[in-house]
């Protein structure tokens, strides 16, 4: 069993939680209520937009490492 | 959205009485976290700038990994701090209102649901358990021109044997994940499966075959940990990784159910 490098189920303190694990829960979990502002952003939309950003960014980071060139940001 | 150029970011809801905001980390916009109380419930909120968190800005900012990372962590940090003191119903990222009154109105309308959610997570914690196929995925043999002209029959035989081994490894990993999930469900009040994370995002070369969340009574946490140690020893086809305890993100939205990994 690994707990991000640890050996037991003791709560971690100071250990950096992985962003993907956070996104599973913060975009896929939690109580879903349409706030006034988020009314215009559908549930699925929010997840899609964020995950697209993540995938784009991960591949963009790899490209930057590979080529040391500027990578165009996502379209607005 | 508001005349002042501010809107209200909602972090979480708790029952009344439990809530102290002192010691809460700053919110997603660096703002102090405040409370809004009504209907026997307490909401944790913060004023954020509409230029950064309004609908148009959100769409743009959610595409920025650095912004997303910062915001997700800040939202989580506030919820985690509250959860140390009492059961907390976390809100999905980016639940935003124009005013405190909007938050209060929502709490009155959803009071029954929110109280039900609080009752489900009281004295329980969420644990994440991920399983990875122990055998790394076959990257495939090089198939350049040098290979194609080699001793064909021997190559094909080797290749077939390798594919068969990979296939049996895959099957064993899937079966292992299923067995792990079934056993963990037995010890949990509820379980929920997330889609496996992609190897790129998870920064793990191995294939993820289980991405589960388990709601476990605090008094059974030791038993749960022991079960994971046993499962690790029993099922060599998978490697397990545990995260948590988490605030009960996965068990407040009415999605909880078992299922197939």
What does this structure look like?
The complex is a heterodimer of chains A (76) and B (261). With 76 residues, chain A is mostly helical. Chain A is built from two helices and no strands. Chain B has 261 residues and is of the alpha+beta class. Chain B has helices at 50-53, 55-61, 65-83, 100-109, 111-121, 145-148, 152-186, 199-202, 221-234; strands at 6-15, 34-38, 41-49, 89-90, 96-97, 124-133, 190-193, 208-217, 238-246. In chain B, strands 1, 2, 3, 4 and 5 form a five-stranded antiparallel sheet that branches. In chain B, strands 7-8-6-9 form a four-stranded antiparallel sheet. Chain B is globular, with a radius of gyration of 23 Å. Chains A and B meet through helix 1 and helix 2 of A and strand 1, helix 2, helix 3, strand 4 and strand 5 of B.
Secondary structure topology:
The complex is a heterodimer of chains A (76) and B (261).
Chain A: H1 19-28, H2 43-67
Chain B: E1 6-15, E2 34-38, E3 41-49, H1 50-53, H2 55-61, H3 65-83, E4 89-90, E5 96-97, H4 100-109, H5 111-121, E6 124-133, H6 145-148, H7 152-186, E7 190-193, H8 199-202, E8 208-217, H9 221-234, E9 238-246
Antiparallel strand pairs in B: 1-3, 1-4, 1-5, 2-3, 6-8, 6-9, 7-8
Which short descriptors sum up this protein?
heterodimer; A: 76 residues; mainly alpha; flat; disordered N terminus; B: 261 residues; alpha+beta; five-stranded antiparallel sheet; four-stranded antiparallel sheet; 9 strands; 41% helix
Proportion of residues in β-strands of chain B: 15-25%
Element order of chain B: H for helix, E for strand? EEEHHHEEHHEHHEHEHE
User: Whole-number average pLDDT of chain B?
Assistant: 86
Shape call of chain A: flat
Q: Helix- and strand-based class of chain B?
A: alpha+beta
User: Could you name the ranges of chain A where pLDDT drops below 50 across 5 or more consecutive residues?
Assistant: 1-14, 39-45, 64-76
Shape of chain B: globular
Low-confidence stretches of chain B: 255-261
The biggest chain-chain interface is: A-B, 44 and 70 residues
Note the total helix count of chain A.
2
Q: Give the rounded overall mean pLDDT of chain A.
A: 55
Largest sheet of chain B: 5 strands, antiparallel
Give a short account of the largest sheet of chain A. Answer: none
The helix fraction of chain A, in percent, is: 40-55%
Radius of gyration of chain A: 17 Å
Strand elements of chain B, count: 9
Task: Note the beta-strand portion of chain A.
Answer: under 5%
**Overall SS class of chain A:** mainly alpha
Gap between N and C termini of chain B, in Å?
42 Å
Number of strands of chain A: 0
